[in-house]
Amino acid sequence: MKKTVIALFIGGALAAPAAWAQNSTATLEQRMLLLEQRLQAAETRAQNAEKEIRQLKQAGPAPQAAPAVAVVSATPAAETQNNRAAPSLKLSGFGDLKFYGDVEFNMDAESRKGALIGDRDNDNEKWDINGRILLGFDGYRTLDNGHFAGFTAQPLADMTGSMNLDDAAFFFGRENDWKIKIGRFEAFDMFPLNQDTFIQHSGDTANDLYDDGHGYIYMMKEARGRSDSGGNFLVSKQLDNWYFEVNTLVENGSSLFVDGNYHGRKLTNDKNVVYVRPVISWTQDALSLSAAMESNLVNNAYGYYNQQGSWVDQSKRNGYGAVLTWNGLKNDPDNGVVLNLNTAYLDASGEKDFSAGVNALWKRFELGYIYAHNKIEQFDQRALAECDDGCWITDTGTYDIHTLHASYQIPNIMDMQNFNIYLGTYWSWLNEKGGDEGSQDRYGARVRFKYFF
């Protein structure tokens, strides 16, 4: 038994070196094969790299990517205070791009022209729901030296199914110094009405349109801009407490008058008018004083042919205005008072108009009064047959228009500081001095839903 164990031990010891030699030989061959494969792969990668370098040299240098730009919210700061922070996104391009919106819908009730009380036999009451949604896009770029350039575009979608446009302008200049602006926009407001939720004045006269036969509230707005038939070019300068502005408006001058009718005559437009409107304003703390004038520089721009066939120019229009404003909200946002005193005078072909107004805002309640004096020096009564029953001015003479207006803001609907409701009302009446007829009246009320985003 012992001999057998010793024999097995000796046999195993003799076989071990042979097995170790065989395993070492196999491992060395595998390593040589692996090294050869790695050399072949490295050669292939080198060839591919040389090929890509040749292609890049033929294509030229790659364009550099534009820097990413942050888009900031354009919602007014007062409307977003204490709300959650607006989301931001990144865009490529130059400068800042702002996107914002203004939702405004109204529920109106007002009397027809010349009527105070409606009945079933006559349609003297007007009920209406109207409004629009404004989408704003503003681009702005500024340099370290204070130079800037930008644009604004504000398409409007109204509930009648049509698309309109509020502002569309390009501007450039130097911060707190000078500025040039061109496009469609409104220049300096020389007859501010404060929180003017609903004001129709007398008849169906609008703030900046003359509806023949219904009087006129002149407000220094004929050359202010945002015209449907022309554009603005404005140059402004800021110098300490002083602000200077010259606005130029080129448009179809007869578009000021509804349907082109003025003093009972149909106007013929011969060429565009060129209005120039300089403004000077001084501001110190809450007080500001402003004065301006506007004048059409083009003679014989529009007019009519008389019975003898001669041309009669009607395009002379020179206006003057001044406004005093006290804005107590600057120092006291909770209890401050905003007060406006406005006055304006128009010297036009066949007509002289004077307007004066006062309005005040305190704790979201606004109250105002406007007085207008129209002196009609020319009127063609042959056009009376074409005028509806609502025409109040049917001859030469002197007419006074009185308008009372009020509004109240209900803020933070559903605890949203960018969602408010406004309640507005007005009462307007017209008197003819020396006339036999009594005053002609109009009134109305409105509920406005206002939402910013």
Characterise this structure.
The protein is mainly β. 14% of the residues lie in helices and 48% in strands. It is built from two helices and 24 strands. It has a 16-stranded antiparallel barrel with strand order 4-5-6-7-8-9-10-14-15-18-19-20-21-22-23-24. It has a three-stranded antiparallel sheet with strand order 13-16-17, with no helix packed on it. A hairpin with an 8-residue loop joins strand 22 and strand 23 (419-432). The chain starts with a helix and ends with a strand.
The proportion of strand residues reads over 45%
> What's the tally of helices?
2
Evaluate the radius of gyration. 38 Å
Strand line-up across the major sheet: 4-5-6-7-8-9-10-14-15-18-19-20-21-22-23-24
Write a concise synopsis of the structure shown.
The protein is mainly beta and 453 residues long. It has helices spanning 2-59, 77-80, and strands at 68-70, 72-73, 90-92, 96-111, 125-142, 147-158, 163-174, 178-184, 230-239, 242-251, 261-262, 265-266, 268-269, 273-284, 287-296, 302-305, 311-313, 317-327, 337-348, 351-362, 365-376, 397-410, 419-432, 440-452.
Task: Write the SSE topology.
Elements: H1 2-59, E1 68-70, E2 72-73, H2 77-80, E3 90-92, E4 96-111, E5 125-142, E6 147-158, E7 163-174, E8 178-184, E9 230-239, E10 242-251, E11 261-262, E12 265-266, E13 268-269, E14 273-284, E15 287-296, E16 302-305, E17 311-313, E18 317-327, E19 337-348, E20 351-362, E21 365-376, E22 397-410, E23 419-432, E24 440-452
Parallel strand pairs: 2-4
Antiparallel strand pairs: 1-3, 4-5, 4-24, 5-6, 6-7, 7-8, 8-9, 9-10, 10-14, 11-12, 13-16, 14-15, 15-18, 16-17, 18-19, 19-20, 20-21, 21-22, 22-23, 23-24
